[in-house]
Amino acid sequence: MSGADDEHLARLLRQAVAGDEKAYGDFLRDAAPVIRGWARRWTVGGGVDAEDIVQEALLAVHVKRHTWRDDAPVIPWLHAIARHKFVDAVRRQARRPTVGIEEYEETLASVETEKARDWEIGRALEGLAPGQRSVVNAISIEGCTVAETAQRLDMNETAVRVALHRGLAAIARRFGRS
Amino acid sequence: MDTNDLIKALAADTRRPGLSMNTVWLGAASGALVLAGLVFFMMLGPRPDIAAAVETLRFLFKFVVTIALAAAAFAAMRVAAWPEAELRKLLPYLCIAPVLVLVGVALELIALPSDTWAAKLIGTNSLLCLTFIPLIGLAPLALFLLALRHGAPSRPAFSGALAGLAAGGIAATFYAAHCPDDSPLFVATWYTIAVLGLTLLGAIGARLAVRW
User: Fold this and answer.
1) Beta-carbon neighbour count of residue A50 at 10 Å?
2) Which residues lie closer than 8 Å to A67 by C-beta, 6 or more apart?
3) pLDDT for A40-96, tens place per residue?
4) How far apart are CA A35 and CA B172, in angstroms?
5) For the segment B127-183, what is each residue's pLDDT rounded down to a tens digit?
6) CA distances from A93 to A46, A87, B118, B152 (A)
7) Using one digit for the tens of pLDDT, what is the confidence trace for A82-114?
């Protein structure tokens, strides 16, 4: 979280805003551990999962990246967004019914260790329209490029990009509403 | 979905990011002035003796207060739309208009004999003031809330209250051109109530609409 880190992130984000796709990926990959550090500290002893905060914050960073001014430091901006998402997650957690959960605790625990933990974003993904879901799935979980996805789903590339954009925006909105 | 998978999806979404906040605020401010002006000129219009009124200090002072409020609240609202904004630093902005009003009230109390204070405060048209300031301010408030929604305010309700103050400042500026009551005692009472109504509406509206 030093000044050098901030300059590094700011440079990547500036390139990303200028349209450099690779720099944007690098920016998100380098921002994630910074956010994870805060999220772990905030979620100690609480019922909120740090990785959920990281994912929701990255999604919010993505849809709100126009609120970064290219002459402003990146870290305070990231921190504010992550903090906002953490507060959101705590509120959501508080509203969730907890009655009787103790009875299932063992089952839940064993299910969680058996298969990879399903993050909140994964659940939001399930709620997308089928077309958007298959595009987001192909590009994220299966790691396809836009071109490969287009070929596989028999769509043109613009349609894939539109579906991806709308799908991600819909997931972000879902979290914003909760 | 693993975090790295999510990053792949985000990085692949290369469609243009949202409009810059500067553009959005410029649009919201112009739209707010046009719509407020439209409502004002269609429903009220300036008072008939406005040419004579502009020669009087009390009439002009109303605009000093309302324009100061509109400008300061608008500036504060713009700042509040950045997620990392330090809201405490905005308080000096928000003191400008109230301090001006208080100075005006003090001077008025000195200038006028005390048996006229009540009549000046009640004025001739307080109900019209309470009706039309919110009415003129409604469209600006809606535009400002939309702009905030495009931003990322870390305190939505507070930023919505600022939107209400800014919309109230704009509405009061237009309304002041119609209002025949120029005493700071009237302005401090009725304009304040009307603007605070919009402020409350802005805070509630933002809680509902400005989520991200």
Assistant:
1) 20
2) A77, B21, B81, B82, B83, B151, B152
3) 999 988 888 899 999 999 999 999 999 999 889 999 999 999 999 999 888 888 877
4) 44
5) 999 999 999 999 999 999 999 999 999 999 999 999 999 999 999 999 999 999 999
6) 10, 10, 54, 22
7) 999 999 888 888 877 655 555 555 555 554 444
Q: Chain B residue with minimal CA distance to A178?
A: B211
Report yes or no: A135 and A163 within 8 Å, Cβ to Cβ.
yes
- Between chain A and chain B, the number of residue pairs with CB atoms below 8 A apart is 114
Residue B1 has its nearest CB partner, among A21, A63, A125, at A125
Contact A177 B14 (CB under 8 A): no
Alpha-carbon gap: A55 to the closest alpha carbon of chain B (Å): 6
Contact criterion met (CB < 8 Å) for B10 and A62: yes
H-assigned helices in B50-90:
50-53, 57-80
Mean of pLDDT values over B97-116? 95
Nearest residue of chain A to residue B208 (CA atoms): A177
Task: Report CA A94 to chain centroid distance, whole Å.
Answer: 21
What ipTM score was computed for the predicted complex, to two decimals?
0.88
Enumerate the residues of chain B whose CB falls inside 8 A of the CB of residue A58.
3, 6-7, 10
Which residue in the set A19, A62, A139 is minimally distant from B8, CB to CB? A139
Q: What's the mean per-residue pLDDT of chain B?
A: 95
Taking the CB of residue B61, how many other CB atoms lie within 10 A of it? 21
Residues of chain B in contact with residue A39, where contact means CB-CB under 8 angstroms, are none
- Helix residue ranges per DSSP H, chain A: 3-17, 21-42, 50-63, 74-95, 101-114, 120-126, 130-140, 146-153, 157-177
